[in-house]
Design a protein that fits this description.
Helix content: 40-55%
Strand content: 5-15%
Number of helices: 9
Number of strands: 9
CATH class: Alpha Beta
Structural class: alpha/beta
Order of helices and strands: EHEHEEHEHEHEHHEHEH
CATH topology: TIM Barrel
CATH architecture: Alpha-Beta Barrel
Largest sheet: 9 strands, parallel
Strand order of the largest sheet: 3-2-1-9-8-7-6-5-4
Shape: globular
Radius of gyration: 17 Å
Low-confidence stretches: none
Length: 254
């Protein structure tokens, strides 16, 4: 059995497909350890069903992010408030965003992002909370997003030099931008603090109708000894609970 734990993303299922109660009940019954990206209003509901909260957004927004120094005062304030809440609720990860490129040089964007995260890294360390910089694709879903390659986000983490600052390696987004998933995990897993999954194309179930072969990917993650969360963030085409159950079983076999 792999050392990692599994979570599932709220927004993909609720409220469009399942009620909040149906979603958390199904996650708990299937065996998920946590849910993620749920509104604060429902944190207590998750806890009441024995579920941890694996990750929530640390700040706004995907577009106006850490790569612009003029955003740092706002983002640091938002992160400090979220770190306090995460510490109180036992939330493992706060998701952070580079922001859109907007013509900004890569080196400058990396340096600015690192400077912003460095301002709150020690507070996150003390709270036992990880700040995970998400790699998103700029080809399909998030045009002009700056941290659209693994190397970009890894370099930010190197520059910060804190155990509390990691990469959120989203396999769906990485497949669109660069592929080479197994080699990337082998080379850079020490920088990865959280994983997301979904099928490509379409961001649907992890099944035979999409191009990512998840079984060896989960095995590769397990082989690294990773003990954090793998968060399933797919939008189901079929029955949502069946999709949740199938993703859990596939990853658990890793």
């Amino acid at each position: 059995m792999p050392a990692y734990r599994q979570s599932v993303s709220w927004w993909c299922f609720t409220p469009a497909l399942l009620s909040p109660e149906q979603f958390v009940r199904a996650a708990a019954e299937i065996g998920y350890a946590a849910v993620e990206l749920l509104p604060e209003t429902y944190w207590a509901l998750a806890r009441d069903h024995g579920l941890a909260i694996a990750a929530v957004d640390g700040h706004a927004s995907i577009v106006d992010g850490l790569n612009r120094r003029e955003n740092h005062v706002r983002i640091v304030r938002e992160l400090e408030a979220k770190i306090a809440k995460a510490e109180a609720w036992g939330i493992a990860n706060l998701i952070c965003f580079s922001g859109s490129r907007g013509g900004l040089d890569d080196a400058d964007g990396i340096a600015a992002t690192a400077e912003g995260l460095a301002q709150v890294a020690r507070r996150a360390e003390d709270a036992g909370v990880a700040l995970v910089l998400e790699v998103l694709n700029s080809k399909v879903d998030h045009p002009d997003y700056h941290a659209d390659h693994t190397a970009w986000a890894v370099e930010v983490c190197r520059q910060v030099g804190s155990p509390a600052v990691k990469v959120l390696y989203d396999i769906y987004h990485a497949q669109i931008m660069e592929g080479d998933i197994l080699r990337t995990i082998a080379a850079h897993h020490c920088w990865f603090g959280h994983y997301h999954t979904a099928g490509n194309p379409g961001r649907h179930e992890l099944d035979e109708h999409q191009e990512i072969n998840y079984a060896p990917i989960f095995a590769a993650i397990a082989a690294t000894g990773y003990s954090g969360y793998i968060g399933h963030e797919f939008i189901p085409k079929g029955d949502p609970i069946t999709g949740m159950r199938a993703a859990f079983a596939l990853a658990q076999a890793g």
